[in-house]
Amino acid sequence: MYIKQIVQVLASWIRCLGGRIGCAPDTQKTGPASSKLFTINDFLFTTQMDNINLFKLQKYCERSHISRKLNGFVEKYQPPMVKIQEPEEPQQTGMTRFLQEISKKTSEKKEEPQVLEKIDDEYQAFSSPLLHIEGFLLALTNADKDGRVVISKQDFLSQSRLKFLLLNPAVHFQDVVKEARAVIVAGGTMQPVDEFKHQLLYCAGVQEDRIAEFSCGHVIPPDQLLPIALTTGPSGVDFNFTYQSRDTPKMMDEVGRVLVNVSNVVPGGVVIFFPSYDYEKLIYSHWEKTGVIARLGMKKKVFREPRKANQVDFMLGQYTSIIEKACSGGVQSGGMNGAILLCVVGGKMSEGINFSDNLGRCIVMVGLPFANIKSPELKEKMDYLNATMPSSNGKTPGQIHYENLCMKAVNQSIGRAIRHKGDYATILLLDSRYARSSIQSKLPGWIARRLQTIQKFGPAFGAIRKFFVERRPTSSKADTS
């Protein structure tokens, strides 16, 4: 009976996405892209699942271990496959491990040829897709007010998806708080934490006097980091990267002027983060037409973050190789001194990648990466917070959440540099809004304490130049003097 119910549930989900049963999902067109948001009860009625007891179905899946059994069946009866036999000491291919290996490598190793070998008695491990189905069924047992279901249709059924949006995480955290004597929540990028405490701890019944907050500084000395909030560019244009003004030619030209100047004095790698892929594409196209890319290329090789994940390792390898060659013999006057990497906040480079040492001597954040305010999911979350949480300092809970999402993304991106106690770098925040105390208070403490707000580009450029001149090898200082 329960197996039939699982099949019935899967069929109803396929139909709600506009698909047909028994046809390949990658060949079924589901119409133009669209996104609809439902309450849990509305979703159950829409998919005709309201007559199924989800609690019993979920309990059956839990007790029968059906997902594990199905996974074991697939692993046992899958056909033999051709496996690439790796050499005894293979090169790292993961992005983070790759960069760590590059930074520590002292000698080149000759790559051994790979050998194709047919392996009959080994198999590839799979994760059971039924586990995801069980998780979604469990999510649908939440109270109607605590969650929403998003139906996202794309051009093809294989690209469409169902997503559960949990509005009230405290309802699940309550059991942890009640049963544990102490709960430790740790993370590297948790700023700002006030919203986190309100939504997860206070709403779960935790009293304020039970919460102990500890945040340590960074291991580096204060003089090894130079963070600057810059409000105007070299020609005096105010850095206002709001959605209405960031696409103007004068704004894009001004960013180009900043990077051309910075590239002349910063050795090694410069990593630039843009708010979105669309804006990165727009500004790169503009710079190609106006000659900024050519001017940047005179000092640094320009790389762009690829959209396809399988191209990331290759691009990072080239980026690292250029920087190593440029920095191995010191910075040569008039020659290439490193590379520039154009990235996107929330993309593949903003999390999990360590741009340590010469790979990231300068991190540039262009604007504030606010999320799309018209997103149905974001709007629903903001409406829920406005209805259930109190206002603070004249701002609604929805506004605070909107700002915090942005600043968490900023903190995640600018934290890619400074990875060990001997590292040093400068962080350049381009937007007049970074001068606001409300924005600066949401930066990590070890950055906020050192942050300099500079109104004009001249003093900022002078500070950056001095910062790196003081860290040049003795021979390089003598050559420039």
Secondary-structure topology with pairs:
Layout: H1 2-16, E1 34-39, H2 40-46, H3 54-64, H4 66-77, E2 81-85, H5 95-104, E3 115-119, H6 129-139, E4 147-153, E5 161-166, H7 170-179, H8 194-201, E6 225-230, H9 249-265, E7 268-274, H10 277-290, H11 292-297, E8 300-304, H12 312-328, E9 338-344, E10 362-366, H13 376-388, H14 397-414, E11 425-430, H15 437-440, H16 445-448, E12 452-454, H17 457-469, H18 474-480
Parallel strand pairs: 6-11, 6-12, 7-9, 7-10, 8-9, 10-11
Antiparallel strand pairs: 1-4, 2-3, 4-5
Helix/strand-derived category reads alpha/beta
Low-confidence stretches: 86-93, 106-124, 475-481
Strands, total number: 12
Shape estimate: globular
Integer average pLDDT: 82
List the secondary-structure elements in sequence, H or E.
Answer: HEHHHEHEHEEHHEHEHHEHEEHHEHHEHH
Round the Cα radius of gyration to an integer and report it: 26 Å
Observed structural traits:
disordered C terminus; alpha/beta; 18 helices
Task: Provide a brief overview of the structure.
This protein has 18 helices and twelve strands. By secondary structure, it is of the alpha/beta class.
How would you explain this protein's 3D organization?
By secondary structure, the protein is of the alpha/beta class. Helices cover 41% and strands 14% of the residues. A 7-stranded parallel sheet has the order 8-9-7-10-11-6-12, sandwiched between helices. Strands 1-4-5 form a 3-stranded antiparallel sheet. A two-stranded antiparallel sheet has the order 2-3. The chain is globular, with a radius of gyration of 26 Å.
